[in-house]
Design brief:
heterotrimer, A alpha+beta (96), B alpha/beta (412), C alpha/beta (204), B: 412 residues, alpha/beta, Rossmann fold, 2 domains, 7-stranded mixed sheet, 13 helices, 17 strands, C: 204 residues, Pyruvate-ferredoxin Oxidoreductase, domain 3, 20% strand, globular
Chain lengths: 96, 412, 204
């Protein structure tokens, strides 16, 4: 860890108040498996959105598509398990 | 330094927590009441495995909090059981009230404290703020340098706490993560050897309301009351008794340590302080816990360069080894006291206070400065230790102190 | 007494007085991949060979996937140090995706060894990290683990690679330590992984 990037005690707010929002932490920076959606099979039931622990799946109104945000997707595979029409499958992630 | 003993024990790899759990098992404790908290969790997990496997005949109670855990131990001790618990940080803080009750009831509970910082902000890593703040609680306090010493000290702690002239609860502090989770070479004594060393718990005798000498435990055969209401006419006298026990403990701790050294081949100074290359040292550091090991490595490097550096590690912080400290520092010209905790607004850290205080009445007056370090697990590297000795050298050369109290390793 | 005063030593001198015969290993993994267990098994293998050891983890946020470091020290003399490892002789990377976010070569000694779990060649890793000195070894540990264990837990494979690349402990000691550490059903899957990685590790 480069100490130059870390702030001194004079520069930070007190009591551990965070100076970046928690969304700045991209929980999707690593995955072993990534969810791939077959949009044709998808019935837009929204169960994947409800079950996703990271809120990484959302419905895009303009295109009526379920969109996966891979910045936050951890690859846990819950969406694949919960999808009632098997529209989601987990594929091995590349080495990045 | 490990010397060969009659029964050459081969070293195995254990981390500090595992070493503590093993020692407690070998001491055949009757009751363990505990609540998990990082970095002590391995102690509780390992011990509960022993209980589950039938390797130890112990009543293991999973309490709902640390406050209850210590209360359980106290109650068990009051009926004559040998008891053990472990905690850290917020857990120790939660027990605070009962720490005083336990020492006031003269219950020989042994507790391992995996030294960890207090919140807020939440920090799971090492510093001494949890146990330092309990230095007034009437508990004997031992701080260990490595996993081997954690093992040895738990075994000695039962003998110390249960000694009839002491009867005080004893805590053994091991640095969180630096020792608790660090695998090191630990030589383990055979079960029989440990059993013989700690023996059975000997209950002291007290005079009851009939003038009869009875064992100091709750027993329907010989009913007594322990720790009831005191008014202003007796509380003070009871507290003076605790202080007396602490004073007696000093010599007894040394004797028990020597006895253990004879059977194990391992000693830690005189059991109260561990001096390293202090005989002709001009510059010395005073340190508690695992960092002392890092300091020893730097002292060796400096000595190789002809610098008269040394280290005084305080092993038994309560009772404070006043004479040992004075003797160790008698030829030292500049002393740096390292504190791994901060007494906010207190003009330096707690160890600094005590050292300066001890030196005040003595004939010698070395320069004494304070370094607050390592809070929240901030690493204390060899480079930083070297900086301390360089500061001491400068003080020795110029006779002037720039800053009495510094924070080292902090991002300014 | 200026200038030549023994106390006017510089920070650089510390390196020259380094503790003799001490080897320091830094492991890079992600929470749940077994970086800590890897450093533990290596240490336990070394202690079987009569060495003095230390093994300890360094956690960030305690979550699966968060970068985790662990460390092993192996020495012929008792180890007093209780600080972190700053200049490892060996760096092991359990997960290739760490290469782009974690400075894995930071502090690595000039003649040190870097051992990476990856499908690509050592030469490519060297180029990717702009590493001009020391040795680079690679092994496709994820593939080996999935093939034999059915899960992408790469820690034991990486221990095999470390043994091959550095020879700091024997394969036999690692096997013994693994058998002690895992229950029989896991040990019998992990031993072939270690042996396979030992074979497949390559340098360049």
């Amino acid at each position: 860890m480069n100490t130059q990037e870390k702030k001194s005690w004079k520069e930070i707010p007190m009591a551990g108040v965070c100076w970046v929002p928690s969304t700045a932490y991209l929980t999707g920076d690593w995955r072993t498996y990534r969810p791939i959606l077959d949009s044709e099979k998808c019935t837009r039931c929204m169960l994947c959105h409800i079950y996703c622990p990271d809120g990484a799946i959302a419905w895009k109104a303009e295109t009526n598509e379920m969109v996966f945000n891979y910045d936050y997707c951890k690859g846990c595979g819950i969406c694949e398990v919960e999808c009632p029409v098997d529209a989601i499958s987990m594929k091995l992630e590349g080495e990045g | 330094m490990v010397l060969t003993t009659q029964k050459e024990s081969k070293a195995i790899a254990l981390n500090g927590d595992e070493a503590v759990a093993l020692a407690a098992k070998q001491c055949d404790v009757d009751v363990v009441a505990a609540y998990p908290i990082t970095p002590q969790t391995i102690i509780v997990e390992r011990f509960s495995e022993y209980v589950h496997n039938g390797e130890v005949d112990t009543e293991f109670i999973c309490t709902e909090s640390e406050h209850s855990a210590l209360t359980c131990c106290l109650a068990a001790a009051a009926v004559g059981a040998r008891t053990f618990t472990a905690t850290a940080s917020a857990g120790l803080a939660l027990m605070h009230e009962i720490l005083y009750v336990t020492s006031g009831c003269r219950a020989p509970v042994v507790m391992a404290v995996a030294n960890r910082a207090l919140s807020a902000p939440i920090n799971i890593h090492c510093d001494h703020s949890d146990s330092m703040v309990e230095r007034d609680s009437g508990w004997i306090q031992i701080y260990v340098e490595n996993s081997q010493e954690a093992y040895d000290s738990i075994i000695q702690a039962f003998r110390i706490a249960e000694h009839q002239e002491i009867s005080l609860p004893t805590m053994v502090g091991l640095d969180g993560f630096f020792l608790s989770h660090t695998l090191e070479n630990v030589s383990v004594l055979p079960d029989e050897t440990v059993r013989k060393f700690v023996g059975q718990r000997q209950i002291p005798l007290v005079k009851n309301h009939e003038g009869k000498l009875v064992p100091y435990k709750l027993d329907p055969e010989n009913p007594i009351t322990i720790g009831p209401l005191d008014l202003h006419d007796y509380y003070f006298e009871h507290k003076r008794q605790q202080e007396e026990a602490m004073r007696k403990a000093s010599e007894i701790i040394r004797k028990i340590h020597d006895e253990y050294a004879n059977i194990s081949g391992r000693r830690y100074g005189n059991g109260r302080v561990d001096s390293y290359r202090l005989e002709d040292a001009e510059l010395a550091t005073i340190c508690l816990g695992s960092t002392a090991g890092t300091v020893k490595t730097v002292v060796d490097q400096l000595r190789a360069k002809g610098v008269k550096a040394g280290l005084l590690r305080i092993r038994t912080f309560r009772p404070l080894p006043v004479q040992d400290i004075l003797e160790a520092l008698q030829n030292v010209k500049a002393v740096a006291v390292m504190d791994r905790s901060c007494s906010f607004g207190g003009y330096g850290g707690p160890v600094f206070h005590e050292i300066r205080h001890v030196l005040y009445d003595s004939g010698t007056h070395p320069h004494v400065v304070n370094y607050i370090y390592g809070l929240g697990g901030r690493d204390m590297s060899q480079l930083l230790v070297q900086e301390i000795y360089r500061d001491l050298a400068r003080i020795l050369e110029t006779g002037k102190i720039d800053k009495s109290i510094q924070f080292i390793g902090l991002r300014e | 007494m200026r200038g030549k005063h023994p106390l006017s030593i510089t920070i650089i001198d510390l390196e020259k007085n380094k503790v003799k015969k001490l080897i320091e290993v830094r492991w890079h993994g992600r929470g749940g991949q077994g970086a800590w267990t890897a450093s533990e098994i290596l240490a336990k293998a070394a202690i079987l060979e009569g060495k003095y050891i230390q093994s300890f983890p360094e956690f960030g946020p305690e979550r699966m996937g968060a970068p985790v470091n662990s460390y092993t020290r192996i020495s012929e003399e008792p180890i007093n140090l209780h600080c972190s490892v700053y200049n490892p002789d060996i760096v092991v990377v359990l997960d290739p995706t760490l290469l782009k976010t974690v400075p894995v070569t930071q502090g690595l000694k000039e003649n040190g060894a870097l051992i990476v779990n990856t499908k690509v060649s050592p030469a490519e890793i060297r180029k990717k990290l702009d590493l001009k000195t020391g040795k680079v070894w690679t092994v496709p540990a994820t593939e080996i683990a999935i093939r034999i264990l059915g899960r992408p837990i790469t820690n034991t494979a990486m221990i095999g690679a470390v043994a091959r690349a550095t020879q700091i402990v024997s394969l036999e000691s690692i096997e013994k330590a693994t058998n002690k550490r895992f229950p029989p059903n896991l040990a019998e899957k992990n031993i072939p992984i270690i042996k396979e990685a030992y074979k497949e590790a390559r340098t360049g």
